[in-house]
Amino acid sequence: MSLSACNDVKSDHNATETVKEQPTPKLEQLKEAQEAQEAQEAQEAQEAQEAQEAQEAQSSIDIASLKHQLNSLTENKQCASQASCQVLPVGKRACGGPSSYLVYSTDHAPQEEVEKLAKAITAAENAKNKKEMTMSICEHLTQPLVQCVNQQCTTATSANPAY
Q1: DSSP E strands, 46-151
Q2: Cβ neighbours around 90 below 10 Å, total
Q3: Rounded CA gap, 93 and 140, in Å?
Q4: Which long-range contacts (CB under 8 A, 24 or more apart) does 21-26 make?
Q5: Whole-angstrom Cα distance, residue 61 to residue 94?
Q6: Residue 161 confidence (pLDDT)
Q7: d(Cα 108, Cα 152) in Å, to the nearest integer?
Q8: What span, in angstroms and rounded, lies between the C-alpha atoms of 106 and 153?
Q9: For residue 80, is pLDDT > 90?
Q10: List of residues 6+ apart from 145 with CB closer than 8 A
């Protein structure tokens, strides 16, 4: 092989390497499309996470709002007789049973409305516990006995928390 033929072969080899090093327009487009798709998926995942966090925050606000409504509705615990004093389970612990018990007077709080709010709180806490896979202490509260003392509804024992 002559020197000129060797140079031609070398020149052809360098040209082949140059072609290999330069990406084809289609390959470049595919890469860009894949990167754009990955960026889009990352953005969607971030938005989904933010939406979930906002929903969880709203759920906590809703529960707090319901509890505030219930407390406002039942804050007057004045009673004329023992029959006016009622106790109601409220909320839901992850292990089961109510979060607390509410002592209230039917003389000043409409029983149907109180029960409706208590059920709404219980349902909301139950849904939140399931969604967040909440763990809790598995201490079950005993429903307190209520009595009318000095014209006020109160628990007969202070061993269990009540609203």
Answers
A1: 85-90, 100-105, 146-149
A2: 23
A3: 9
A4: none
A5: 19
A6: 47
A7: 11
A8: 10
A9: yes
A10: 87, 155, 156, 157
Torsion of CA 47, 52, 58, 59, to 10 degrees: 170
Does this model's pTM top 0.70? My answer is: no
Token pair of 20 as six digits: 């290999």
Task: Give Cβ neighbours of residue 21 (< 8 Å, ≥ 6 apart).
Answer: none
Contact 145, 156 (CB under 8 A): yes
Does residue 147 sit in helix, strand or coil? strand
Q: Which helix (H) or strand (E) holds 154?
A: strand 152-155
For 80-100, what is the mean pLDDT? 92
CA–CA distance, 56 with 130 (Å, rounded to integer)? 12
Can you read off the two tokens belonging to residue 78?
A: 């004045």
- The yes-or-no verdict on residue 5 having pLDDT over 80 is no
* CA–CA distance, 112 with 121 (Å, rounded to integer): 14
Answer whether 103's CB lies under 8 Å from 155's CB.
yes
Compute, in degrees rounded to 10, the torsion defined by CA atoms 139, 145, 148, 150: -60
Tell me how far apart the terminal alpha carbons of the chain are, to the nearest angstrom.
102
Q: What is the pLDDT of residues 28-58, one digit of tens each?
A: 888 888 888 888 888 777 766 666 655 655 5
Identify the residue whose tokens are 């754009």. Answer: 36
